[in-house]
Amino acid sequence: MMGDTEDAELLRQVTLGNEEALLALYRRHASYVHALARRILRDKDEAKNVVQETFLRIWNKAEYFDPELGTPRTWILTIAHRLALKALKRRPDTLPLEDWDAPVESVGTEEHLDRIRVARALEALDGEERRLLELAYFYGYSHSDLALILGWPLGTVKSRLRRALKKLEVELR
C-alpha cells in the first residue's frame, strides 16, 4: 500500500529527528488514535492525553518500528491501545463489559462508517471469539488474566485470540 510506504518513510525520518515527519504522521493518524482511545476510555480529555502520549512515544521510539511485524498504522494503534488500557486500569470506575456499546457523542461520518464495519465484522465471529476479543481489547485483560477467567491453558487463549483476530481481519478486508 502506498500509505504504508509513506508512513514507514515518515517513521524513518522521525528517527532522524524530523519534527515535520512526526507532524505528518499526526495529521494522518491522530483521528484514529483518538477514536480508539475514546472508545476504550469513554472520556474526551483522557483520549486527548492518550493521543499526546502516543505521539510522544512515537517520537522517542520510532526506531523500534519493524515493517516485518506490521504496518505503521498498526504499530501506532498498538501503542495507543496499550496506553489507553493502562489509563483504564488506573481508573477506579472501569465500566462493566456490557456498557461498552452504550451510545457516545456524535462522531464524524468516516468514523461512524468504520464503527459500522467493525460491528458487522464482529457479528461474523462466533460468540466465543467475539467475547474473547471484547475481554482482551475492550476490557483490557491480559492473556494470563484470560486464561484464569476462562479456565483455559495460556497457549489455548493465545491461539484462539490469534485465530479470532485473523477472522476479524478477513472480515474487515
From TrEMBL:
- InterPro entries according to UniProt: RNA_pol_sigma-70-like, RNA_pol_sigma-70_dom, RNA_pol_sigma70_r2, RNA_pol_sigma70_r4_t2, RNA_pol_sigma_r2, RNA_pol_sigma_r3/r4-like, WH-like_DNA-bd_sf
The alphabetical list of record keywords is: Sigma factor, Transcription, Transcription regulation
Give the record's GO biological process terms: DNA-templated transcription initiation
GO MF terms listed in the record are: DNA binding; sigma factor activity
Could you tell me which Gene3D superfamilies the record lists for this protein?
A: 1.10.1740.10, Winged helix-like DNA-binding domain superfamily/Winged helix DNA-binding domain (1.10.10.10)
Instruction: List, alphabetically, the Pfam families matched.
Output: Sigma70_r2, Sigma70_r4_2
> What positions does the domain RNA polymerase sigma factor 70 region 4 type occupy?
117-168
Q: Which residues form the signal peptide?
A: none
The residues covered by the RNA polymerase sigma-70 region domain are 25-91
Transferase recorded as keyword: no
Give a yes or no for keyword Nucleotide-binding in this entry.
no
Q: Which PANTHER family does this UniProt record tie to the protein?
A: RNA POLYMERASE ECF-TYPE SIGMA FACTO (PTHR43133), RNA POLYMERASE SIGMA FACTOR SIGZ (PTHR43133:SF62)
Q: Which family does it belong to?
A: Belongs to the sigma-70 factor family. ECF subfamily.
Protein name as catalogued: RNA polymerase subunit sigma-24
